[in-house]
Amino acid sequence: MTMRTSKDAMDPRHLAPSVDPGWLDAFLVERNLIGVQPARLGDDLVTVESHVQESGEGAEEIFGDPVAYARALPAGADRETSLRRVDLFHICLGLAGLLLTNRAITGWLQTGELAVTGGDLASTALLALMTTVLLAAPEATLRVLIRRRWVTVAAPVLMIGSFVVVQLLWREELFTLPVLGSALVGALALLASSVIAYRTFRDGVVTAPGETTAPGAQRRRWTFTLLYPVLLVFLVLLGWVPTLFT
């Protein structure tokens, strides 16, 4: 078998080019939601491809409904939930660290202190609520997002809109926090999130039979690990550069 490139690795259709893309997408989504490991999923795709090529029929005619077929296949003893709680934990921890560190640095550059408003507390409560929902039912939440396209579109809009609304409604300053201490707490949260992301990284890219890892796995690991620190640098620069011209 020809070795795949890093670009090919990101598209599992490369392993089943003869299968109808719509059928294949539905099959892949359901197998991922079940928690099938990438190596086993690669074997599944090669099996489907071989049957389609040998019979000359479509996957729908051979295997029937893609979701039903995906559920009928064994998931394997090594299956995992498609969105582990440890993933959600470090994502939320990194987001909290990103926001706190950015606010602390921005406050230091502008006024020398970190002012906390009612909107900040309300935003924190909203973030905690969403985190609780995700941690309590990660797979159910992911299924809703995937099966209901309008929810996928509306959820980010509602989330960002909620944060904006509470920030506009409760602008009154309630108290101030030490800039250095806040920045330190935020930086520690970012560091912990990055370490967890690196140590628990799962590539998630479907591997072909005989492959131990897909091409470009190490690059994807570091991209995932450094996402929040890079975003922090971008946000700080975004808030600091305009002050140079005022």
Tell me what the structure shows:
The protein is mostly helical. The protein folds into two domains: 6-72, no CATH class; 85-201 and 216-245, no CATH class. The chain is built from twelve helices and two strands; from the N terminus they run H-H-H-H-H-H-E-H-H-H-E-H-H-H. The protein has helices spanning 6-9, 21-34, 38-55, 59-63, 66-72, 85-110, 118-136, 138-147, 149-169, 179-199, 217-225, 227-240, and strands spanning 114-117, 173-177. Strands 1-2 form a two-stranded antiparallel sheet. The longest helix is centred in the middle third of the chain and has 26 residues, at 85-110. It is elongated and about 70 Å long.
Features:
single chain; elongated; mainly alpha; two-stranded antiparallel sheet; 12 helices; 246 residues
